[in-house]
Write a structure and sequence with these properties.
With 316 residues, the chain is an alpha/beta fold. Strands 8-7-9-10-6-11 form a six-stranded parallel sheet.
Length: 316
């Protein structure tokens, strides 16, 4: 057998334990995902019978995992899978850069190459379409970038909207005033804001109209200047709704449109998805960027990726 030592900076006992995981679970998972056999001996990690390409790959993988450890991130299967996917894309970017902080001072970073692309696209374009499956962080990162823009003074207002379309079941009549009626549809946006700013801060900004969370139907007739506007669940917009939304763009404003084209709740016999149409019609327009996130960018529980892949296989 051919053993090659994997060079890892500052490999002490603590770092080795974090890399290996409980009962060497991380090592076993890396072997499963990469088909490279590994061995731990005398406090060092070796590849077994790996060719040059495999050894370089596994060395780069451990270097990426060490960055996560240094950044005090949890090294679980999700993190390892994301690191492997990033390397497989042959687009090795620095995912250690901190974008922002949560209200508990926990750092926020791009966890995949696709997320990195989305963040860069939002920085450099006025309109960004982000399509991808559940769990890729597309809406969450859009909210993060909106809050950053607000804090930096590049915009004066954040507007969050989504179509009030029920997900496969009729909810019937909802009691209460307008806010109470539409809040259930907008709850995912509240969740992101609360995690980033805290509920009290969010409530204050909502009262001051610095942050607006409204159903898409109430966007008609407005011109949004100096605003960061996010349309969530855009796969549930019709062609007319998407056109209406996009033409709200005012001066010194940004728009991010997110959605999952595989999970439309529209009546497909009556109308087609405005998101799908916009992806086709607006390609090549300067200032508009399209980002396609994939299963490799899913950062929820690793089972989410497995579930989506199994459903896609069955559908095919």
């Amino acid at each position: 057998m051919n053993y090659k030592k994997i060079e890892i900076n500052n490999l002490d006992t603590d770092r080795l334990q974090l890399l290996c995981g409980i009962n060497d679970d991380n090592i076993k998972f890396i072997e499963e995902e990469t088909t490279v056999k590994l061995m731990i001996k005398n406090g060092e990690i070796f590849s077994i019978d790996a060719d040059v390409k495999q050894h370089v790959f596994i060395s780069n993988l451990f270097a990426s995992l060490c960055i996560l450890i240094d950044n005090q991130e949890v090294l679980d299967r999700n993190a390892i899978k994301n690191a492997i996917n990033n390397l497989n894309e042959h687009n090795q970017v620095d995912l250690s850069k901190i974008i922002a902080y949560k209200r508990n001072n926990q750092p926020i970073r791009a966890k995949t190459y696709g997320q990195y692309q989305l963040i860069e696209a939002i920085k450099n374009n006025d309109v960004v379409f982000a399509a991808g499956p559940a769990g890729t962080g597309k809406t969450y990162l859009a909210v993060v970038m909106a809050i950053l823009a607000l804090k930096n003074g590049t915009v004066k207002k954040i507007v969050l909207t989504r179509p009030a379309v029920e997900a496969g079941e009729s909810l019937g009549f909802l009691p209460g005033d307008l806010k109470e009626k539409v809040d259930p549809y907008l709850m995912p946006l509240y969740d992101s804001l609360n995690e980033l700013l805290g509920a009290e801060k969010v409530e204050t900004l909502l009262e001051k109209k610095v942050i607006e969370i409204i159903p898409l139907a109430y966007m008609r007739g407005r011109t949004l200047n100096d605003s960061f506007v996010i349309l969530d669940e855009a796969q549930n917009t019709t062609s007319q709704q998407m056109l209406m939304f996009l033409t709200r763009l005012g001066l010194n404003s940004k728009m991010v449109i997110t959605g999952d084209m595989t999970q439309t709740d529209l009546n497909i016999h009556r109308s087609s998805s405005g998101l799908k149409e916009a992806f086709i019609l607006l390609r090549g327009v300067k200032g508009i960027c399209h980002i396609n996130l994939t299963n490799c960018d899913i950062v929820r529980n690793h089972l989410v990726q497995a579930i989506i892949e199994r459903y896609e296989k069955n559908k095919a």
